[in-house]
Structures are given as structure tokens and as C-alpha cells.
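Let's do one together. I've listed all components of the complex below, 310 residues spread over two lines.
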Amino acid sequence: MARAVDTHEIEERGGTSYPAPFHAAVAGRFSRRLGDAFSLTQFGVNLVRLAPGAASSLRHAHSAEDEFVMVLEGTPTLITNDGEQPMTPGMVVGFPCDTGDAHCLVNRTEVDAVFLVVGTKARDSDVCAYPDVDLHLAPGRDGRRRFLRKDGTAW
Amino acid sequence: MARAVDTHEIEERGGTSYPAPFHAAVAGRFSRRLGDAFSLTQFGVNLVRLAPGAASSLRHAHSAEDEFVMVLEGTPTLITNDGEQPMTPGMVVGFPCDTGDAHCLVNRTEVDAVFLVVGTKARDSDVCAYPDVDLHLAPGRDGRRRFLRKDGTAW
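Okay, and this is what the predicted structure of the assembly comes out as:
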């Protein structure tokens, strides 16, 4: 049965599944997969730490997955289709799926930024668009999502 | 397009949909519906404040909705099928659906406790069991969930 734990007991990991040309943008991003630690399957809850200079992701918009962010420490910058907005601890933002509002957070400060990210897990149906780069994420015939170029060829 | 806000800009509300005999347990519970404020429909994200003596809910287990809790302020007590566990800021716990592990948080201290609750919205299929009281929540033929007594009669 469920037992509460401190977030520091859940492993913090770096790394990304992005193709190699896009590794640098998220090299300073580290995540604790809090929801996975309790075997949750319907949504993910990640505690993300961005080192100075790092981005949470490439700017992206999901077709089928709602997303939500709450800042806990530091002052990351939110980037959406409308431009930029500074965020401070206690600020929140949500992204309903299928709006095309492509978003990410970047840390332009000299100290770490920490925030919680919640996102639906709809990996067999979700298509993710990346308006700023030659990248597209879509499920293949086997139901697994793969990174493609915008012309549909594989990375 | 999405604009981040401080949680204090989102209205805090009390009240409950429980039948009248169960109002007292959650009378000191107040919530800001953070996810709803951004029109998210796949999961809820509520910032919950428990006054001294209040409970987050009656102890319950969902059949179809994963749940996740992160404590931000105060020291609420987690109650599950296994008994009680104190929680402190930075502690998290998750409840995969359909395990039967009935849970709630209660505030036995003299100061407010504040935590984030994330839960899937699967209201047309979710059945919620309340092992400690004569209560059951299940969808009717119209797809809407209703509170029933354990013998199936309406409250």
C-alpha cells in the first residue's frame, strides 16, 4: 500500500530521447519522476530542476495531452506562442491539449529553477509539434511515438 | 494563449458535494482549482488548504482515477489501509487506481496544511469506495456519478 516519501528519495536523472542535434538545449535539465515512483500510469508528475541556461524542452504543443506547471524555486521564463513571461515560485500555468500553443520554460538566471510538471500519458495517440525546429513526434503503426523530421523521414 | 498566474489569483472555495451527514469532516477544507482555471479536462490539479481539524476527504479508493499528493506547507497525516504516516513539506505519495488502498489526509496540528492534489478526471467510469462510512459513489445510467448508501439506495 502507498507510503509517502520525500522527493529526494526519488532518483534525479538527466538525459533526453531527443535526436542528437537537440541534446544541448536540455543538457542542464534533471527530473525526478514522482508519479512513476508510485506506478501511476494515467499522468506523469515530474519534479524538474533546470540548471542556469537550460530549457525544460524544445518549444512544443501536444495534440492529446494536457499539461500543467507549478514553479517551486527560482525564476524561469515561460515561452509560448504569445512571447515570454517571467515566472516566480507559486506561479502556475496550464496547457490544454490541441490548442497549438507551443511552450517551454528556460532558465536565464544564475541559479537553479525547480518546478512541477504534470502531463497526461496518451502516448499511443499524442502528436507533438515543434514549431521552432525540424522535429515532429508522432505514433508509428506499432503505436510507439517516434521523432521525425517535418518531411516525415526518421531522425 | 496560456498566461501564467499566481495561485492566489485563483479563487479559493470551501464546500463539498458529500451528503449532509459527512459535511463536518471537510468543513475546514478549501481548494483552488488550478487545472480548471486553465480549462484542463484530463486531470484536476487542486491546491488544498486544510484548517486545523479538517480532512481532505472521507477515506476513499478510486476504481479508475490515479491520484497524487505533494505537501507544500504544514504536517498533515496520511491515512491509508496500512494506518497512519506523518507528512512534511516536500513529501509525496501516489495512489494508482483500482488498488483498494483507501486514503485521505487529516490535519491534526494547530496550523494550516497546504498540499497539491492531482487526479485523473474519469467521472463517467470511476467508482469510489468509502470503507469507513455508509457511502458509495458510482455513475448512474446517465453517466453522472451519484452518492449512494452501500445498499444502493440514494442519499
